[in-house]
Amino acid sequence: xxxxxxxKSINHLGLVSAMFDELxxxxxxxxxxxxxxxxxxxxxxxxCKALVLNGLGFSQRTLYMVSSFFEDKPVEELLGKNIExxxxxxxxxxxxxxxxxxxxxxxxxxxxATQICTRLELKxxxxxxxxxxxxxxxxYDTSENSVIELKHGYSRDYRPDLKQVVLNMIVENQAGIPIxxxxxxxxxxxxSNFAQSVGNFIPKLHKLYExxxxxxDSAGYTRSILETCKKKWISRVxxxxxxxxxxxxxxxxxxxxxxxxxxxxxxxxxxEQRWLIIHSQKAYEREIKSYEKRYQKHLEKEAKTIxxxxxxxxxxxxxxxxxxxKLNKSLKYSRLENISxxxxxxxxxxxxxxxxxxxxxxxxxxxxxxxxxxxxxxxEKSQKxxxxxxxNQLDEDELSDIDILTNYKGQSKIERGFRxxxxxxxxxxxxxxxxxxxxDALLFIMTLSLSVYASMEYKIxxxxxxxxxxxxxxxxxxxxxxxxxxxxxxxxxxHLLYGMEKTIILNMNKEQKRIxxxxxxxxxxxxxxx
Length: 530
What we know:
Elements: E1 6-9, H1 13-22, H2 25-31, H3 44-56, H4 66-69, H5 75-79, H6 90-103, H7 105-119, E2 126-135, E3 164-172, E4 178-185, H8 190-200, H9 202-209, E5 213-216, H10 223-228, E6 232-236, H11 242-245, E7 253-256, E8 259-268, E9 271-280, H12 281-310, H13 317-330, E10 334-345, H14 354-358, E11 362-372, H15 374-383, E12 386-391, H16 401-409, H17 412-421, H18 436-466, E13 471-472, E14 478-479, H19 484-490, E15 495-498, E16 504-506, H20 510-519, H21 521-524
Parallel strand pairs: 2-5, 5-6
Antiparallel strand pairs: 1-15, 2-3, 3-4, 6-12, 7-8, 8-9, 9-12, 10-11, 13-14, 15-16
């Protein structure tokens, strides 16, 4: 009797699974835990792989829907023999998350990241530090002892009404792979968060990876952090510093296309530094548009204030002059100029007396012209597009001015990672588990997912570069730097057909086969290419 034919969709999940295997993450995770396989049919490492596949499947499935995500997927091929979708229930995955949280997510992730970078032969010279927030919905068990607390705090998602959790991350500069993650309570601010990382983790990461420079945004430029950090660093300088406001702009020279600058030596927080005062033409054009709108609003607001004062009546010129002086001092963008005083005869009831006729009483009303303060306008315009980068590397032969700018712009790698993690198609923009410790563990899973994604993208680009190959981009033009998401899209619609003598792959085209051949046997085997 012929078996019933049925198919399972694999799409790009074979690529994800192959990357997970190539990094040997399941074996490493399982080696770190005592496996309670009497109570579960899959190991903790396999649970992690399943959750990463769920996240990178862009299915918008929550933790409690992982089993349904795998119902139409080739589970045994992706996760191992005798594993079924029903095994990936919320109880099994929840206990795995509990175990991960109890072990320590930062500790576990550091061990995995070390292996990932070793397998990819990454030796990062620069690492980038930043943090972001994830808001939470619903009620959570606050009685448990957890490393994080759900608190209200500064929300980068513009949801101050919701409690949140903070994720601190450090990524390497070559592939954008996180090499450090730490979950923090929702009310932790960047300055104290970064200070802890600089004191506790940067020295350890330097030993593990022999990194040369820590790159930070302006939140890292504080006295406490600069005094604590014994390694070399690059940071943006906050525009609010007194030293910045008092800075005299010198002649700018070209640094790179669309960038001009001048440099100077500065000592701040007891640390001698090089400052690059940089003007970005593109940033200027972007900022000046919004500034002009704000400037007009300021003028309109101050004009209303002035007109209101011009309606006032004063009993003497002295009072009127004092009021106008006080008014002008309170204004920033405009002043009342060409001032005159209009006499207003005070009329009394009844017939005026001879005294009133000979010596009339006058009140005074101020007249004048509302004029903008052009010096303020010109100064504020001159500040647009300007930012300052600092480093404690004083040797320009070791770190040139252009290297400072180039590697600070690498901060976009960590920002891109955060955007990826907050993508609505990813695991979740908010969380739906009921234990705080599981939120900590889910942040670990999300960071691990980002690492696998970034590893996949790095491998694809490296292979294309080494073999001098390209693939078509979204508009059909050849590229050797495709995004991983685009490559995933190219593998859409691939199924495995079961019920015959051997499993058959459906809907594979020549381009997909070529990409798999470039990636190697580890990837080809998931698509049954002999």
